Amino acid sequence: MLEIRSLSAGYGALNALEGVSARLPAGARLGIFGHNGAGKTTLLRCLVGAHAARAGEVVLDGEPVRPGNVAATVRRGIAFVPQGHNVFPTLTVAQNLATAGLLFDGGFAGEVLRIFPLLEERRGQRAGSLSGGEQQMLALGMALMTRPKWLLLDEPSTGLAPVIVRDVMSQLATVSAAFGTGLVIVEQNVPATLKVVEHCLILKSGRTVFEGTAATLAAKPDLWEWF
Ligand code: ATP
């Protein structure tokens, strides 16, 4: 269970998040939407312990996530794929996966390569020479090397062609089904994300302005277009 309890956070005088809450049972799939500056990335950073909350807390399986030690949070089962291309461009695909597995025994590579056969095909290729979609797949594979219970993704569709976005979303659904991994996906592309997540939050100026099921939100495009 991943709990976000009345979380408030900010930067200097700015309040980026104010009293955001959610309770996610193991394996849940949450989408977080909202305009630029709504506080979505700040929420993800608090979840992984990369940013200290001003009030409230994040609790994983009954124990608070303590800020300031992201490696400890990753070991507890929360992996974070930040926005952008999070691969080592001069290393090969196999070396990238091995590097990501250093925190653990590295024995997860076989399962990751089974889920993403394309990475197996490209294992000797330098990551910098992969397409944007392939790099996103590798970043996802690297996050999975840490055997996460929860996978946090900050705008995984950014910079990808629509057909590749569909691939990335279906890979996320596959991963969640195969490993029981919970997903927390921050996205601008609401329709693509609604195909994968079950629950949604919309943030506006750091506050929750909608909380409900993906089906409810899918039936109300005017709602998410407005925010
Ligand atoms: P985006 O879609 O643009 O990434 P977001 O919803 O993820 O937006 P955040 O990045 O969490 O929003 O930003 C929330 C607020 O905090 C914004 O007003 C932003 O300008 C501010 N902010 C974010 N990071 C910092 C920082 N390191 N220092 C100061 N202010 C920041």
UniProtKB/TrEMBL annotation:
GO terms for molecular function: ATP binding. Pfam families: ABC_tran. Residues 2-227 form the ABC transporter domain. InterPro entries: AAA+_ATPase (IPR003593), ABC_transporter-like_ATP-bd (IPR003439), ABC_transporter-like_CS (IPR017871), BCAA_Transport_ATP-bd_LivF (IPR052156), P-loop_NTPase (IPR027417). It comes from the Bacteria. Keywords: Amino-acid transport, ATP-binding, Nucleotide-binding, Transport. Coiled coil: none annotated. PANTHER family: HIGH-AFFINITY BRANCHED-CHAIN AMINO ACID TRANSPORT ATP-BINDING PROTEIN LIVF. Belongs to the ABC transporter superfamily. This is High-affinity branched-chain amino acid transport ATP-binding protein LivF. The lineage of its organism: Bacteria, Pseudomonadati, Pseudomonadota, Alphaproteobacteria, Hyphomicrobiales.
